[in-house]
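help with this.
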Amino acid sequence: MDAWPTNNPPTLPGRGDTLRLYDTSTGTLVPTPAGSADSGSPARIYVCGITPYDATHIGHAATYTAFDLVQRVWRDAGHEQVRYVQNVTDVDDPLLERANKNGADWQVLALRETALFREDMTALRILPPYRYIGAVEAIPLVVELVERLLDSGAAYHVDEDIYFDVHSDSEFGAVSGLDPALQEKVFAERGGDPDRPGKRHPLDCLLWLAARPGEPSWQTSLGAGRPGWHIECAAIALKYLGSGIDVQGGGSDLAFPHHEMGAAEAQVVTGERPFAKVYAHAGMVALDGEKMSKSKGNLVFVSKLRAAGHEPTAIRLAILAHHYRADWEWFPADLEAAEQRLAKWRAAVSRPDALPADALLATLRERLADDLDTPGALAAVDGWVDAVLASGTFSGAESDSSAPGLVSRAVDALLGVAL
């Protein structure tokens, strides 16, 4: 599956700092990637993608902006090889349910919403993934992984369906840190089937769903059917990145069960632990006091904001005003403030000369390397901009004709904001 066009970040003088990200599994800040920039080893990150039946709301945009920053900070720190992989769950129950509700063909719906997602990612200047893989095209990878799990005894049949025995992984639960009672509650709320008869344990998750009447299926060595949810990402990540990746990313609602299950599946079949050195999770975005979600229908769509004449760069700035791990609520005033901020930044860099910006570049690098502190980074740019706009003309040692260009390149390379 094709991703979207790239926008190559400008090269900045010097080298950025090592990125430290908050790891959900340990509750600590961890340097990423594990290897140095001079080792020649690629920096590897897998980020879970959309189920394309409604794209792209601000919650999506916030998550993918966060992990876009990871790529940018890594590249600025000298990691020339960044391997970012993202999936598209282009066959799954929510997609089929929406298609049936709307009287639409599920494939047409998936293709349309994936195309819209690509347009939004391009507009928001999100760097494209190294590999962009759909669940349908990954079915051979899923089948191979399920067969390996069956051979190891970690998977078993319930009727014609196939389930993963989550406790075949001795470290199951380490990603999210949830206690067993809460695991079962969350599992039921997020697509699990804890009460299905015949399972070894309520938390065991579906690997392969045997063909159902009226639903899409594929004929494979496992029989006719389609993939379960968690196995898709495990199979894609192992194929294109291998085990022991640097970062597994996604929204905080994916920590359990999705990332927990996928990690367990990968760890059991490879024997290598941990599957990811860091599990990084973006916060949830709310609207009208409730988490923005498709089921509630309280969504703000990037495409509709763009159609209303709002510049994508301002939308991105509105997102960057919030720390990626924080839960926050969208208000129209966020976008108004971002548009005002963007206008001031552009006014400052349009000056023929300005205050020196070397210290600003250093601060930007420092703030972003500290768990992607975008509010701190924006405040640093605001400080430079306010000083420039308040000072009139510059002369002598104060003047630096190269500063406006350096600031423009820095916010483009590090924040993805085009001035």
Notes: DSSP finds 13 helices and 15 strands in the chain. The two ends are 31 Å apart (CA to CA). Residues 333-415 form a domain with the Four Helix Bundle (Hemerythrin (Met), subunit A) fold (CATH 1.20.120.640).
